[in-house]
């Protein structure tokens, strides 16, 4: 994966004006938030009285691991790939090793692991940690007081209230009630002060939980239900995808909305109709992203998958329908035949306000045979917080790059002194520009599924349109592809193209003697070949960010060409049957070299 040269600066006056507009909008939003907060502090229209009691504890669908409770009791706090050893002190006194680590600590989602331990010791430890946090005053300032963190913590305290309150004394009960009331007030101010995008939706969900679970908050529940309905109608697209195009957001929303729907029912309160419609639309969309092994395709911010969480969410799919195959509003396509699955990104970048984690992966695809993933995108690193732009670049995806550039421009790209870098870090590195015209067509022909799509992300800079044609055979035994590069006033000297196919770390790749083909051995013993016509082929190192154990090195098949001379290249993945791994690797190797080994950590 090469550095994104063209993305290193904010290109063109249009992008510069767009960047300045986003920055000015953020300044206005923060000023409005401050002014509204100050006015509300004087008028005190939000409810500040602590709730008297909890009425109901919502269900938590997220994965639990009781062994984490032992680590926390021993003082080890492992979040977002970083570990802090508290050494007998409160973790809230420690210097956070990263923003992502601190976000997860302050969100308290880890309480579910202590509840899974189901012991008096875990309950006492949970109460002690919550008491430490409240006594520190972190919930009133800094990162822990940001709306998204407050919302996640409010939901965690409500869902894990049985853990916190069983065996608790009255003093702790009152402290927790006050903290819940304070969180409600903070989120009400955030909604009134201009919270937007995912932050606004998350705050509305948390307040809807509070309105249902806390005694005396019926008025809050009625008001926030309208806000929740408005945001779901705005952010969930007609085909069920989220406006950010990020599958992870879809998973997080379902993990919150499914228990919220149950909580409405348990309180005999009619849920907002957009909530029910959103869930019904999101379920088939989640199935579109799902590979045969239960993992989710790595597009636009998606990282590692918790397969048991996905399975749990799908249990709630009342329709039990097959996943959709054509999602024109979200910009994704699914091809499936004979146990082979292809999932392709056929959409442009999302709106700037929702593009902080979006990738430049237009026309990239992932390929799975049965339970084995073959071609992947690199995915997003573990944890939350700012994502390196290199991981969002086109080169991190299984598609074509022109002149080593991304098909999108990111705010925040460039050296540390550039205006784009400084403003981008402040406003969250959204996408400033990218493909605008992405025509898509698909059809069935003699049982084969044919997908054709193109994008204009390279037209303005290099005068090149990239078109990709995929044909999945009826039995799933072959995926044939053709990448075409249409020249429209091309930029001289900038027509070099690299086509990448990133391989899953479990795939072993060895070049065949012809030099124009690669043997791919899957972990289940099945063998596939990759072939390309008339272009140089190489196997190079790559990085896979979405492994359960963190980042791993892997390999990629790389095709290189000059679009001014070679306008199209054909390639194919072909199943050749099941082989003994040792014999297959020996037959695939050149006589004068050893097969390339699997490069693991």
TrEMBL record:
Record's subcellular location:
Cell envelope
| Lineage, broadest ranks | Bacteria, Pseudomonadati, Pseudomonadota, Alphaproteobacteria, Hyphomicrobiales
GO molecular function terms noted in the UniProt entry: lyase activity
Q: Where in the sequence does UniProt note compositional bias of the Basic and acidic residues kind?
A: 580-593
Q: Where is the Heparinase II/III-like C-terminal domain?
A: 322-572
InterPro entries named in the record: Chondroitin_lyas, Hepar_II_III_C
What is this protein identified as?
A: Heparinase
Annotated region (Disordered) at: 580-601
Its cellular-component GO annotations read: cell envelope
The protein's organism comes out as: Chelatococcus daeguensis
Taking the first listed entry, what is the main subcellular location of this protein, grouped into a coarse class? Answer: other
């Amino acid at each position: 994966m090469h550095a994104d040269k063209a993305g290193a600066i904010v290109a063109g006056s249009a992008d510069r004006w767009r960047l300045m507009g986003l920055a000015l909008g953020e300044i206005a939003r923060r000023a409005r938030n401050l002014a509204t907060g100050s006015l509300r502090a004087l008028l005190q229209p939000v409810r500040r009285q602590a709730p008297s009691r909890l009425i109901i504890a919502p269900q938590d669908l997220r994965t639990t691991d009781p062994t984490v409770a032992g680590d926390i009791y021993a003082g080890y706090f492992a979040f977002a790939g970083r570990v802090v050893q508290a050494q007998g002190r409160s973790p809230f006194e420690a210097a956070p090793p990263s923003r992502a680590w601190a976000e997860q600590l302050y969100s308290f989602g880890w309480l579910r692991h202590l509840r899974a331990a189901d012991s008096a010791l875990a309950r006492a430890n949970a109460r002690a940690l919550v008491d430490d946090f409240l006594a520190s005053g972190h919930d009133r300032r800094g990162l822990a007081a940001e709306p998204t963190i407050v919302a996640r913590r409010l939901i965690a305290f409500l869902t894990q209230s049985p853990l916190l309150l069983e065996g608790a004394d009255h003093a702790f009960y009152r402290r927790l009630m006050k903290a819940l009331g304070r969180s409600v007030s903070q989120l009400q101010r955030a909604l009134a002060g201009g919270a937007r995008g995912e932050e606004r939706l998350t705050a509305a969900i948390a307040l809807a939980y509070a309105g249902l679970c806390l005694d005396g908050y019926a008025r809050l529940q009625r008001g926030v239900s309208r806000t929740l309905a408005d945001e779901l109608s705005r952010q969930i697209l007609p085909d069920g995808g989220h406006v950010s195009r990020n599958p992870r957001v879809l998973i997080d929303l379902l993990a919150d909305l499914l228990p919220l729907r149950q909580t409405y029912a348990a309180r005999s309160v009619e849920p907002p109709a957009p909530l029910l419609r959103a869930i019904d639309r999101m379920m088939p969309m989640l199935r579109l992203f799902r590979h045969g092994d239960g993992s989710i395709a790595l597009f636009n911010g998606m990282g590692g998958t918790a397969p048991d969480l996905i399975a749990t969410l799908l249990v709630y799919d009342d329709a039990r329908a097959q996943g959709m195959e054509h999602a024109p509003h979200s910009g994704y396509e699914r091809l499936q035949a004979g146990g082979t699955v292809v999932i392709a990104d056929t959409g442009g970048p999302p709106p700037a306000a929702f593009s902080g984690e979006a990738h430049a992966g237009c026309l990239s695809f992932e390929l799975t045979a049965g339970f084995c993933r073959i071609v992947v995108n690199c995915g997003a690193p573990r944890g939350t917080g700012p994502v390196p732009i290199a991981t969002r670049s086109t080169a991190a995806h299984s598609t074509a790059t022109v002149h080593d550039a991304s098909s999108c421009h990111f705010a925040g790209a460039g050296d540390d002194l550039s205006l784009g870098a400084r403003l981008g870090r402040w406003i969250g590195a959204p996408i400033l520009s990218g493909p605008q015209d992405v025509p898509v067509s698909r059809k069935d022909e003699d049982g084969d599924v044919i997908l054709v799509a193109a994008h204009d992300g390279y037209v303005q800079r290099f005068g090149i349109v990239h078109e990709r044609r995929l044909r999945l055979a009826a039995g799933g035994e072959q995926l044939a592809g053709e990448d075409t590069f249409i020249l429209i006033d091309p930029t001289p000297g900038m027509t070099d193209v690299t086509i990448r196919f990133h391989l899953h770390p479990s795939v072993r790749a060895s070049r065949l003697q012809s030099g124009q083909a690669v043997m791919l051995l899957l972990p289940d013993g099945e063998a596939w070949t990759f072939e390309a016509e008339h272009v140089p082929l190489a196997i190079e190192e790559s990085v896979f960010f979405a492994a359960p154990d963190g980042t791993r090195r892997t390999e990629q098949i790389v095709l290189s060409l000059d679009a001014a001379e070679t306008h199209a290249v054909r390639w194919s993945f072909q199943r050749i049957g099941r082989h003994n791994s040792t014999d297959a690797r020996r037959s695939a190797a050149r006589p004068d070299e050893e097969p390339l080994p699997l490069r693991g950590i």
